[in-house]
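User: quick one, sequence for these tokens?
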């Protein structure tokens, strides 16, 4: 039912310069895997195997990562090091990657619209790889897919943030309807601190119904002069068509240095405590 996941990945990653001068920010490693691989694994865990990536200039290493490296594989074949490629091999064997290039950076809404040719007329998931999520029990996308199968509406993943941070997020105003769900009345992209009481922030996981593309085509530049996905979701929300889901799990804001270091520490702890401790091979 949700077969495809869109990864907007055309951004410059200016907060990580000069590391991102040549290296796409999605390829920055959190311990042993590039950031985007965690998002891809989350999609796979939700049984989504068609991965649509909106890339930009200089992002070719991203495509190479999700492809076989014959020389490397030949070199380490039969050695203990082969194990380190097991996860990426599983992804390459099972998933199909499709790409489109976004020529200009005009905001998240524009990036999603650029992905229309890859998605077509069906509901789909969106992962912003900057947000690294570890679900409780199951992954955040799996949780959202379960909600979608019952409600058939666009869904945004949300969490409460401190009031002082609302200006970094899309903020949801709505009514609690139980089961960790909020019916969205309105969304505001990056409101000024103190301008609304709501602290319910959208994180980078969405399930969108296909009408979002037709809506996005008419969205004018909003916050930051960019075409905002939030503004298109607002049009759906006016018709009662958007739910916010309080996911179970932890999210790391890897778009900031602080969050990136926190995520790295958390993954390091997980890997060190795993029975097949990767660092010992
Ligand atoms: C985007 C969205 C925002 C959302 C955030 C989550 O903003 O526009 O609504 O809250 O992702 O990470 P960005 O962080 O790309 O500026």
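Assistant:
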């Amino acid at each position: 039912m949700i077969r495809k996941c869109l990864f907007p990945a055309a951004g410059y990653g200016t907060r990580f310069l000069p590391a991102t001068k040549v290296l796409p920010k999605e390829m920055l490693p959190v311990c042993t895997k590039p950031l985007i691989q965690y998002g891809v694994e989350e999609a796979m865990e939700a049984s989504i195997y068609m991965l649509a990536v909106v890339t930009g200039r200089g992002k070719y290493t991203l495509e190479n990562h999700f492809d076989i490296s014959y020389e490397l594989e030949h070199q380490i074949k039969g050695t203990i090091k082969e194990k380190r490629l097991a996860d990426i091999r599983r992804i390459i064997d099972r998933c199909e990657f499709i790409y489109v290039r976004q020529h200009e950076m005009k905001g998240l809404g524009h990036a999603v619209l650029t992905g229309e040719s890859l998605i077509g007329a069906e509901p789909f998931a969106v992962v912003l790889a900057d947000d690294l999520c570890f679900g409780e029990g199951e992954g955040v996308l799996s949780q959202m897919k379960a909600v979608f199968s019952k409600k058939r509406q666009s869904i945004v993943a949300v969490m409460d943030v401190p009031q002082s941070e609302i200006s970094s997020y899309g903020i949801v105003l709505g009514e609690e309807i139980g089961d960790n769900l909020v019916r969205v009345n309105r969304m505001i992209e990056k409101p000024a601190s103190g301008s609304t009481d709501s602290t319910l922030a959208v994180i980078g996981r969405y399930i969108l119904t296909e009408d979002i593309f037709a809506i996005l085509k008419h969205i004018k530049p909003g916050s930051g002069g960019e075409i905002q996905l939030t503004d298109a979701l607002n049009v759906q929300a006016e018709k009662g068509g958007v739910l916010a889901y309080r996911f179970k799990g932890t999210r790391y804001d890897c778009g900031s240095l602080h969050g990136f270091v926190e995520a790295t520490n958390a993954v390091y702890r997980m890997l060190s405590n795993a029975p097949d401790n990767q660092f010992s091979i």
